[in-house]
Design goal:
Length: 374
């Protein structure tokens, strides 16, 4: 149950700049250009009739987001201004992941799901900051579409030295069929993992090292029959085991967040049951090996989308009814002035702390002091 505790609420107001009943941002009400510290601000962006799905920053100034209309936007000033750098009508940009200011990947949802999407290429690479795209070559094997991109920077021993290594996974999709594109050399070569025997949909992916990873999924491609599902691999995707199943139909595990690559992470349980008011998130304290359910709210309208945690305690959830926030690891939640359907959160380090970006019907950010590690 959501706990309305005065002390907790006061602490949240100080930390997140919110209060019970705070108005939700809308396209007609952009935030002030210079909000007080700890307040969500809404950036001026090109109007889009729906939610934007993904945002990717490589530092506190350079970032990108895409739309279902096939447009890619970039900023060089932390989100204050955005420029359309590419447009590919017929492509649905569902996921964006950049390695640095020049090199990145753009995931397309693929055909036979959204009307008007005619592009069958699931993943593109850019080497010039998003201006031009080249199709990722996976040979004869491929997957239908992408819903999430995970970029892992790690190291390996090569000729007696530790050398940098970038492992990339691009997975999908909503509505199926399911599969993962995998690269262990920064995107130069790719392999394909067929996931159709394991899940009906894949909505998110997270790897902790080259071998250990998770997919956040549903048991069926049909939402009416789907149960929320989390799968874990310890051999780079060769085998998978089920580590969470919701046991309720009309549910998907939508997005996940493991702050700073730590052992504690969370994921949203997206319910399409119109009779269900209880909104749950799930939490793991062992890198996804086990999970437990946490109640976020009693609100049938608050169907969940994205989730983003700054550390093990401080985090945000985007829903169809606006945002929610916690500062005690999910024990208590309060409403936050985050625009509807925030689908993706990303935390970046700034000179004075951290900045959390959120993207959905709006593009927003909040600046916070650097939180204690946890």
């Amino acid at each position: 149950m959501m706990i309305r505790n005065t002390a907790v609420l006061s602490a949240l107001v100080l930390l997140f700049g919110m209060g019970a009943g705070a108005p939700q941002p809308s396209s007609a009400q952009p935030a002030a250009s210079a909000p007080a510290a700890g307040e969500w601000r809404t950036f001026v962006t090109e109007a889009y009739p729906g939610k934007r799905d993904s945002i990717s920053f490589v530092d506190d100034t350079h970032g990108w987001y895409g739309t279902g209309a096939g447009d890619l936007f970039a900023t060089k000033d932390g989100g204050t201004t955005w420029q359309k750098v590419a447009s590919r009508p017929g492509t649905f940009v569902r996921a964006v992941g950049f390695l640095d200011r020049k090199n990145g990947f753009i995931g397309n949802i693929g055909t036979d799901y959204y009307p008007g999407v005619i592009d069958e290429t699931p993943l593109y690479r850019t080497r010039d900051g998003g201006v031009t795209w080249e199709a990722v070559d996976t040979g004869e094997a491929t997957i239908k579409g992408i819903c999430a991109i995970d970029i892992l920077r790690t190291q390996r021993i090569y000729q007696g030295k530790l050398v940098p290594r970038t492992v990339i996974h691009a997975a999908g999709r909503v509505g199926g069929p399911t599969g993962i594109l995998r690269s262990v050399d920064g995107g130069e070569t790719w392999s394909v993992i067929d996931m159709r025997a394991h899940a009906g949909m894949i909505l998110d992916v997270k790897f902790f090292d080259e071998n250990t990873g998770l997919v956040f999924a549903a048991t069926s491609a049909d939402a009416a029959e789907a149960e929320g599902l989390v799968l874990r691999t310890e051999d780079g995707g060769k085998t998978w085991r089920e580590v969470y199943r919701s046991g309720r139909t009309l549910e998907l595990i939508w997005k996940a967040s493991f702050p700073a690559g730590g052992p504690t992470g969370y994921a949203t349980v997206q319910s399409y049951d119109p009779k269900r008011a209880t909104q749950l998130v799930i939490r793991s304290d062992d890198r996804g090996a086990t999970w437990r359910e946490i109640e976020m709210a009693q609100d049938a309208s608050a169907r969940q989308f994205g989730i983003g945690f700054v550390n093990a305690d401080i985090g945000f959830v985007g829903t169809a009814a606006g945002g929610f926030a916690t500062r005690d690891g999910g024990k208590t939640w309060e409403r936050a002035p985050i625009a509807r359907a925030a689908n993706k959160f990303q935390t970046v380090t700034t000179g004075s702390g951290v900045r959390v970006y959120a993207i959905g019907t709006q593009v927003q950010a909040i600046d916070l002091p650097a939180p204690p590690k946890g």
